[in-house]
Each structure stands twice: as structure tokens, then as C-alpha cells.
Design goal:
Length: 364
């Protein structure tokens, strides 16, 4: 009888243990599902990247979390900039040209790696961190290509061990990789509607949208907003003599010069045909004039090669400058934006009428 009671007690204790384990498993599943949904429901590339770094670090109570994204041609960084020009990268996010040199595990990483943290192996993965005990490296792979890696770390040496089950981490890395690929593709599609295919600069449609935003920021921060209008001098004969393909090649080269001479905060735009515009947040009339003069001088000094290198052209460009500082009383900003462009356009045609290859509209 005593043996039967002992067996019953043992079975009841085992049942309680199984119920507790089932509840823990259910809680783990629920939390994992919530984390996966937070990635799947991200509305933008920037929101997804924040959810993958900061969101997961908070959810799993990690001491450190990083996301390394392979971005060989800086495309993803440009997509983020177009999505939110004034946004900052989430802490822990880094873009790299290659992952393999950052940690030895990345050379053959096909599934999550869990193990002890080693400063000699993992300091580049978790820069600026100390006192870490264990870490997990989750590869983000699409079509057999390592496109990034999500990295977790804890001060607890037992938190991430090789003996632990990695099924839910593998599932998380699969979800994260698909979400990252989809978000980048979606951002590419959005950007294709606001950029000029030939030059890679923003298009006129984007200018109309961005202009109001920049004027609102200018009003809020009490900083001026300047505008340049630029036009290539004597461009029509190029199309007439060598054809539109040659003209397109020249425009693409001039767009590159404009982009190179602009400040990082400036917004170069192909306005139409051989005409370009540049918005200069925070620049007054004098600063905008300096940028315009740099562009003018660079174009004048440049050599523009036609297809197959048959002909090298020397060209010039004319520019007009305008500037605005909205008052707090101005509620309707679109008319002010139209006026800013119109004034720069007037100065551009003044430069044309005064002999071309010059900048007009700069305060004396």
C-alpha cells in the first residue's frame, strides 16, 4: 500500500511538472509568435530594422543585440535615407560590405550558432560591449546567400549554449530574413516612383512632396531653406547632332557631378529635360551660392564622354538661387514652396540672358 501511494505521489508530481513545462512552452511559443508578428507587421524598412534590433533586445531581455546587414553598394542605406531623411539608425544596426571577416563563425554559418562569448572572436559583432558571457549568431540567408546576421548576447554564460534547442531561433532567423528581403524590395518599389531612372536623382514629383516637408522643418527650427535651379547650356545641339542616347549619357554624367558637389544634407533633383534643382536645408543665400558655384565650376572643368568614347564634350551650366525662411504665422506652405522655385527659376533665366555659365541670385 505504501509503495502504491508513493507511486501515485510520484506520478502526481510528474504530472504537475509536465503541466508546468507545458505552460512554459506555451508562454515561449506565445512570446515567439509575438516577436515574429512584430517583424511581419513592420510598415517600413526603418520600422523593421528597429524591431529586429531594439524590439527583440527588449522582448528577450538581452544585454546586447546587433544586426549586421550586407550592403555592398550602399543601396539599403540610400533606401533608408529616402524613407526618412532625418531619421537615425537604431543602436546596434550596422551596414557592412562583407560579414565573413567579422567573426570566424560567419564563414560557415548556415544555422544559429550558440556558445560562449569570446572577445577575440566576437568584439566586432558586439562593439563597445564588455562582460558578455554567451551569444547567439542567427544567419539571415536568402537563396543561399548570407544577407545579414542577427546577434544576441547575454552576461549569463549559460543563456546561449550549444546544447540548447535552436528550433525557435532558426524559425526567427528565417522569418527575419524573409522580412528583410521583402522590406528592401518594397522600399525599392516605392523609391522607383520618386527617382529618375536615367540619373538616379529624385524626380519632380518627389520635389513637390519634399518641399513642403522641408519648409515645415525650416519653420520649426527657424533655419532657412534654399533652392537652386540649374540648366545645361546649349544642350539641344547635342541631341540634334549625336542623338538622344548621347544626350542621355551626358545628362547622367552631369547628374553625377551635381551629386558629388552637393552637401550630404542637400537634395538633388532632375526637374525635367536638362534642368535640375537642388534643395539645401539650413542654407542661407550665401551658402547656397557657394554650392551653386562649386557645381558650375565642376561642370566647366569636366569632360563629358559620348557613347563609345567617340567624342569628349566641354559643357557649362547656369544656375539661379533663391532662399526662404517661413514665419510661424505662415500656415500654407505650398504657395511659399511654389514661390521659392519660381524665384530660383527667374534667377536661372537671368543667368542665361546675361551670357550663361554663371550663378545669379546670390546676395551681394
Amino acid at each position: 500500500m505504501d509503495e502504491q501511494q508513493a507511486e501515485n505521489q510520484r506520478l502526481r508530481a510528474q504530472l504537475v511538472g509536465l503541466k508546468d513545462q507545458a505552460r512554459r512552452n506555451e508562454e515561449i511559443f506565445r512570446r515567439s509568435h509575438e516577436r515574429n508578428m512584430s517583424l511581419l507587421q513592420a510598415a517600413s524598412l526603418g520600422e523593421l530594422l528597429e524591431a529586429m534590433v531594439g524590439g527583440l533586445a527588449r522582448a528577450y531581455e538581452l544585454d546586447a543585440a546587433t544586426l549586421l546587414v550586407r550592403d555592398l553598394r550602399h543601396e539599403i542605406r540610400q533606401l533608408l535615407q529616402a524613407e526618412d531623411p532625418h531619421g537615425e539608425l537604431p543602436p546596434g544596426l550596422a551596414f557592412v560590405e562583407s560579414l565573413e571577416g567579422l567573426a570566424p563563425q560567419y564563414n560557415t554559418l548556415w544555422k544559429p550558432w550558440l556558445g560562449p562569448y569570446s572577445a577575440s572572436d566576437h568584439s566586432l559583432v558586439f562593439p563597445g560591449q564588455s562582460g558578455l558571457g554567451s551569444c547567439a549568431l542567427l544567419p539571415l540567408r536568402r537563396n543561399d546567400e548570407l544577407i545579414g546576421c542577427l546577434n544576441f548576447a547575454s552576461r549569463d554564460p549559460q543563456r546561449f549554449m550549444r546544447s540548447h534547442a535552436v528550433d525557435f531561433l532558426q524559425h526567427l532567423s528565417d522569418i527575419a530574413a524573409v522580412c528583410l528581403e521583402n522590406a528592401v524590395n518594397r522600399s525599392r518599389l516605392v523609391r522607383s516612383g520618386i527617382t529618375d531612372v536615367l540619373t538616379g536623382l529624385y524626380n519632380r514629383r518627389y520635389l513637390q512632396h519634399r518641399l513642403v516637408d522641408e519648409l515645415a522643418r525650416s519653420r520649426r527650427e527657424r533655419r532657412p531653406l534654399a533652392c537652386l535651379m540649374l540648366d545645361v547650356d546649349h544642350f539641344k545641339p547635342i541631341n540634334d547632332r549625336w542623338g538622344h542616347q548621347a544626350g542621355d549619357k551626358v545628362l547622367a554624367q552631369i547628374a553625377h557631378v551635381i551629386r558629388e558637389e552637393c552637401r550630404d544634407s542637400d537634395i538633388p533633383i532632375r526637374y525635367g529635360g536638362e534642368e535640375f534643382a537642388v534643395l539645401l536645408p539650413g542654407a542661407d543665400n550665401t551658402e547656397a551660392g557657394k554650392v551653386a558655384e562649386r557645381i558650375r565650376a565642376a561642370v566647366e572643368a569636366g569632360e563629358f564622354v559620348l557613347p563609345r568614347g567617340r567624342v569628349v564634350l566641354r559643357l557649362t551650366i547656369s544656375a539661379g538661387v533663391s532662399c526662404a525662411l517661413p514665419s510661424r504665422a505662415e500656415e500654407e506652405l505650398k504657395p511659399l514652396g511654389d514661390k521659392l522655385i519660381a524665384e530660383a527659376d527667374v534667377q536661372l533665366y537671368r543667368a542665361k540672358s546675361e551670357g550663361r555659365n554663371r550663378v545669379c541670385g546670390v546676395a551681394g
